Amino acid sequence: MYKSMMRLFVLTVVSLLLVKPAYSQNKMWEVDLKEALYEVGWIKQSNDGLIIASGAKGLLAMNNKTGEIVWQNTELKAVDKNSYMNIDGLPIIYVEYVPVVGKMRGLLINSSNGDILFDTKDEQYRIKDFTLIPNKGIILFELLKGNLRKMMCFSLKTWKMDWIASLGESKGLMNKYTKRSFVNHGPFFNQDNNIILGINNEIYTINSTSGEVVWQYEANKKINALVFSDINNSLYVGVKKSKKLKVLNPANGEDITPGKLKLKGTLVDVRPDNEDNLILVETEGFNIIDPKTNDFKWKKSFKIDFLEEVIAHDKGFIAVGKNEKEGSICLVDKSGKRIWESKVKGYSYYVTPTEKGVLYISTERSNILDFEKGKDVWKRDVKFKAIPAVTYDETEDKVILFENKKGYKFDLKSGQIELFAEDVELENVKRKTPLMAEYIDGSGYLLQTGQHVSLLEPSGKVKYTKYFEPASDLGGLKNAAQLGLFIAGVDFDIQGNLDNIEMLSSLSNGAYRTSADQTDGTSETTVQGGLYLESTSGDMVPVIEITKTRYSNSKSIKSHKFIVTKVKNKNAPNQHFIYKVNKKTGATDLQIELLDKTPNYLIDEVDNVIVVNEKNHLIRSYQL
User: Fold this and answer.
1) Bridge partner list, 564
2) Which residues of 7-43 are buried (b: 16+ CB within 10 A; e: fewer)?
3) Tens digits of per-residue pLDDT, 525-556?
4) What is each CA distance from 378 to 52, 336, 359, 396, in whole angstroms?
5) What mean pLDDT do residues 234-257 have?
6) pLDDT tens sequence across 88-129
7) Checking DSSP bridges between strand 560-567 and strand 540-547, what pairing results, if any?
8) CB-based contacts of 7: which residues, under 8 Å, 6+ apart?
9) Beta strands in 428-482 (DSSP E)
10) Residue 187, preceding peptide bond in cis (omega within 30° of 0)
11) Exposed / middle / buried, residue 127 (Cβ in 10 Å: 0-12, 13-18, 19+)
């Protein structure tokens, strides 16, 4: 008896010694930055994978695989976390800080080595946004100095500033205190290689070599549309409430408007069609502008109530009238005559051509209108009260739509739709919950938000459904929910996730798999894209090559979803965990406890690690 008890005791002790917390088992490295930074305010990850850490003693970068400090700048103390910005696809970061003596400074830094590429010094510029133009080898940075707008041209050949141009004064607080572009239209490049920008009611044309403002145009009201046509080297300007579409010479801003481009209503849009013409859309109708003559092709504009959108198609023009209670969709031939018109109940927030006709989704009903007579393809309307979650079943070759407890399979080729799941109960999911969908090969369709995960089998059965209490700080995770959208000033909310609209557009155009939805086996390092400039010898030299391993494969972990959650305890402080949830089973295959109540962390899905800033000085990396 005694020996048996001792044997049991020994086995219990051994088993306890062998069982370690997940966060201890999977720790890759640990670095104490108390001496280097004293206190770590925040951590971020640059495009090249380095961990950027800011503290009381400066800014530094760490190797994400080893924790080794790659570079440190002791001057950049207490950098503002909200100012941090990664420049897309490039090893460049932007930060702002206030030195002990002096004014606020903004800096562009080479994240791979810490070199400062641009320093505002005493000018107090703040970078608001940027436009990467690979074929020109430049980045255009939008700057503000107080209320003064500036545009900086940054060369990707020399990695230095080329010039800064002045673009007038910004009015209002929104542009001053938010990270939002102040450029409304453009940039366009005219035949002289000058840059054309539309900002509120002004147009600026800048010499791309010197930064000199070549000419400037000011309208009496906001510019609603600005289109440059290189076919006839003309700039079309649509001003709010103006009764005439202006045409300017892009070389000097001279008004070259012909006498007949008069508007009967309010300008909505100007856009190219499929035959190098321009479609002019106004509230009273639309017409086609011949760029050879700058005149209308049709004697009379085609009229439709509440006209808001015109889509060019091989079978003609799809004109969409949108109103809160009832709208309409028309197919118009290329001479401006109506082929058919169909009334639509509710506001049509999504309209697109498919092989079988015009697909529309409104706040009241959804269907496909055939190209021949505009008749419904689906025998019964499908009613979506919110933007449906969308994915593509590669096995069945069908689009999967889920909304309001119902799942549909939509065949883009035949145009048929079938209801395969009904009265689906998901944990803590309501009609307004902004669900996203993902196809899981061999298992079904993952329905998810940042804190929710469910698997719907192809038969319509729910395999599992789970909701995780959100942590107090979702620092490292992207919140995909976008609620309360006001579309085109219409006074109602369209609930759901806006990314689903982009997914529908991709599917309608035959793109069944996008870069954001990659399958297994794509983690090899191959060149996905790049920026190349011609050297003096005539060779094309890569400035930066974007590889799948780092930049495009953020969904390389197709089998799991990472969820940060808070576990409430009655008689103890709340705990925070990272759960690695198996998409096929819903099981938590791994959990890592975060020691701080309000942790600062980031998830690196490319290298399958989580990096945590604990106790404001201890940086730990765990393998997921």
Assistant:
1) 578
2) eeeeeeeeeeeeeeebbeebbbbebebeebbeebbbb
3) 333 344 444 444 444 444 444 333 333 222 33
4) 53, 28, 10, 19
5) 88
6) 878 999 999 888 777 888 999 999 999 999 998 878 888 989
7) unpaired
8) none
9) 436-440, 444-448, 452-456, 462-467
10) yes
11) buried
